[in-house]
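Illustration: Cullin family profile domain-containing protein.
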Amino acid sequence: MSQAKKKNFKIEPFKHKVEMDPKYAEKTWKILEDAIHEIYNHNASGLSFEELYRNAYNMVLHKYGEKLYSELVNTMTQHMREIAMIVEASQGDLFLEELDSKWREHNKSLQMIRDILMYMDRTYVNNFNKTPVHELGLNLWRDNIVRSPKIKDRLLDMLLDLVHRERTGEVINRGLMWNITKMLVDLGPSVYQDDFERPFLDAASDFYRLESQQFIETSDCADYLRKAEKRLNEEIDRITHYLDPKSEPKITSVVEREVIGNRMKLLVEMDNSGLVSMLIDDKYEDLGRMYNLFRRVPTGLQTIRDLMTSHLRDTGRQLVLDPERLKDPVEFVQRLLDEKDKYDKVIQLSFNNDKTFQNALNSSFEFFINLNVRSPEFISLFVDDKLRKGLKGVSEEDVESVLDKVMMLFRYLQEKDVFEKYYKQHLAKRLLSGRTVSDDAERSLIVKLKTECGYQFTSKLEGMFTDMKTSRDTMQGFNATLAGSESNEGPTLAVQVLTTGSWPTQSGARCNMPTEILSMCDKFKQYYLSTHTGRRLTWQTNMGTADLKATFGNGNKHELNVSTYQMFILCLFNTADRLTYREIEQATDMLAPDLKRSLQSLACVKGKNVLRKDPMSKDISEGDIFLFNDKFSSKFYKVKISTVVAQKESEPEKQETRQKVEEDRKPQIEAAIVRIMKARRLLDHNNIISEVTKQLQARFLPNPAVIKKRIESLIEREFLERDRVDRKLYRYLA
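Result:
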């Protein structure tokens, strides 16, 4: 059985030959060419765009795309040259107007031509990588008009001239400028940049270089900055109205460089008007303007910051080292706070709360506050003044504000342990005399110190408050034992029992008590020791106060609030009207400095002189004679007689305090060394110094020489040993 053969069928094309008019392409292009002429001559209203589109479509369809495209280029080039001749012939200011007018007409004509040749754009242009019709029209405009030898330089000169005229105060046609620069942008970024922007920036650089030189010669710093700010805003406004937005960073960079960057040093250092003058005179607006302008240039803010730091350190050095200012510690600290407030306000209002400026301010304050070794003492005295009397009647918020400012200064101190030593002395006096304005304020400051430095820093301070509360309870028990047992005549005793170690007691204090006072003291001692075992009481007569009822001539009666020492002296005059210095010294057995201060406050202070001194003088000498002042009078019933005492420590007292601080530091340094060596086991000398300093710098800056001595001490006590091979290495002995 044979398999049927498969047959392949083929469809033959239509055999009839279609004859094409040999002049079809020329005739069709002639129609299109005439239409293009009509479009450029503004006679497009009578054209059939549908028919024109079909003709262009057929030419491309019949493979005449190349002819259509090349003829289009020739025709449009011819029109561009005609337009160029018209523009070239324009005179004066009409040149730009004519160019703008022809450009707008060209865009309209180009849109119509592109619509007619849309099919060619989609097919022939894409297939043969030709330039699209619209882009072709722009390129021909660029090459034949904008870059025409007779137009190019003239166009640039007129544009730059208009900008220059506007900079010098003339009013120009911004709308026309916008149209021309937008034309350049539309022709391509390279056209705008090469034909206009680069020369524009060069001209701006020359203009502002000359103008800034004139400004610097005729203006002070503030006026110059106002002019610079105005110029910068004008250029930004110019960009907004008739330049390409991409030009903004470039033109502002030119202004910043010529007007600000190249003149910075001269500006900030101007005599009587530069940065220092602005800071001194609180010119917040001018300083803010300087900050905002200088931040635009790379090293602008650093220039301001460096000069501000230098000025602040010089000012601070004068403030803390001026002997006249050191006479009043409270005023000394207040000046520091005022200076800090001043620069905080400058940074807030003018420098945008810039952290780098705040850091520079903190660094400067830390630098000059620590130039004066008495800064810790003075800050403590300032606190003492405020908590004694300076904050009376002040709201809680204001109290917290003052305490926060004190803490701010405290953070700058490198010797915080010295502050602690003085603060403890002053706090003790306030608590024992009952002269603190607010226990809440006292406790608030201790909480702040505890937060800043830790529990160990404030443990003894908190212990002082605990002792005060315990003493009140103890006195209630003591007074209960006295009630009903004896008559209420005689002195009344109020005792504060202070824990040794928590309070800054003085071992050298001594005095002979009057018999009636000594009797009461013995009774309290007997009561206290009967209720507490293993305790020992030592009377601190230098820290107490007393209220005495005194009767003067003519029956004048007053209640005198005096120190314990003053009370002992006055009690001697119950049995004598006249005593010599030697007799008082022998009867009281007081140390000479304490005796002289007490006598001076009783006899030499006007309005408080319950004693008379012969001969009369401000100072106490060993040959003086003292008499009870019968003629003493005061409009107040209660008279407080404060002990004449230097607000600041005397030189011997200062040396003693410093010695105590150094002694207290030794165990802290040794503890730090042991902690470090216990963790590291083996360490060289320099690294030990570095680690110890790092650990202790929050409290004080240890002296490397002292650290070395403590290392030697630890070696002697066999906590550490030197390495046998490398003697600069130390090993921890477990």
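Reading the tokens back as a structure: DSSP finds 30 helices and nine strands in the chain.
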